[in-house]
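User: Second chain of the day. Same drill as before.
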Amino acid sequence: MTKPRLAVLVAIVFAAAASRLLPHPPNTTPIAALALFGGATFSDKRLAFLVPLAALFASDLAIGFYNNMAFVYGSFAAIVCIGLWLRNHRSGLPIAGAAIASSILFFLVTNFGTWASSGIYPKTLAGLEACYVAGIPFFRNTAMGDLIYTAALFGGFSLLEKAFPVLAERQTPALAT
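Assistant: Same format as last time:
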């Protein structure tokens, strides 16, 4: 990965994470988009996980810690894996599908975490169902935020790659046999 590309990618991820500090509708944040973007754009898999997770952690330092952080970070890491798949499928429909899949994954994992780690719901199947039902009103904002931020990150970086060819990922030629 070229140094200019790496520097711009890191700056984009941290800027998007910092947007969590700005006023926004509930659950309309760049969380899933950051994870997808990191997985899809960092050629080094370690950085694909490390940079978005570090950006999330830095914004959590400013916002404050919360009860089910382990579930949020776990879902975030799983969404990076969706981003890794997205590396070879970077066009509109797969990106939009990955954003929606990420919203669903985040909803399922974090609501399960709320059920499992809080005393709000009984530890029964009915309690788990009640927890998921209670989370439904927040899902719309989550999905909308994920779609908007995903479009902004992927679309914006694609425009940057076209305007500044030094940012484009270099393809290594296949070895002749």
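The chain has one domain: 3-165.

User: Great, on to the next one.
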